[in-house]
Amino acid sequence: MMEINSALLTVLLVLCSVLVIFLIIVCIKFMYTADKLNSVLDDVNKKLKSVNGFFTAIDTVTEAVTTISETIVGKALLMIDKIFKKK
Q1: For the chain, how are helix, strand and coil distributed in percent, rounded to 5?
Q2: CA distances for 58 relative to 7, 18, 47, 55, angstroms
Q3: How far is CA 67 from CA 54, 70, 82, in A?
Q4: How confident is the model at residue 87, as a pLDDT?
Q5: What is the pLDDT of residue 54?
Q6: pLDDT of residue 62
Q7: Cα 48 from Cα 38, distance rounded (Å)
Q8: 68 CB neighbour count, 10 Å cutoff
């Protein structure tokens, strides 16, 4: 009975050692992957900042065009309203 307990204890210790080594390797690979992901995210952030100026310019132009078109439509409606009110 004592030999079976010793054998099981040895097997468990070996399996625990293998598990610890496996977890260390997985942690190292995870840190490497996280570092690569961080560099990719930094690159994406730089590109988004450069594109952000373009979208700001488009937004400004869109707002200007909207303001102009609202003014033109408003004046046209006033003219049409004046024409129909005279009759």
Answers
A1: 100, 0, 0
A2: 74, 59, 17, 5
A3: 20, 5, 23
A4: 56
A5: 86
A6: 95
A7: 15
A8: 10
Q: Which tokens belong to 70?
A: 């609202």
Q: In angstroms, rounded to a whole number, what is the distance separating the alpha carbons of residues 19 and 12?
A: 10
CA distances from 15 to 9, 10, 11, 18, 42 (A): 10, 9, 6, 5, 40
Helix (H) or strand (E) holding 1: none
List of the chain residues with pLDDT < 50? none
Write the DSSP symbol of residue 87: -
Chain position carrying tokens 């009759």: 87
Tell me the CA distances in angstroms from 44 to 35, 36, 49, 58, one per residue in order: 14, 12, 9, 21
- As given in the structure block, the two tokens for residue 9 are 């204890």
Q: What is the pLDDT of residue 86?
A: 66
d(CA 52, CA 46): 10
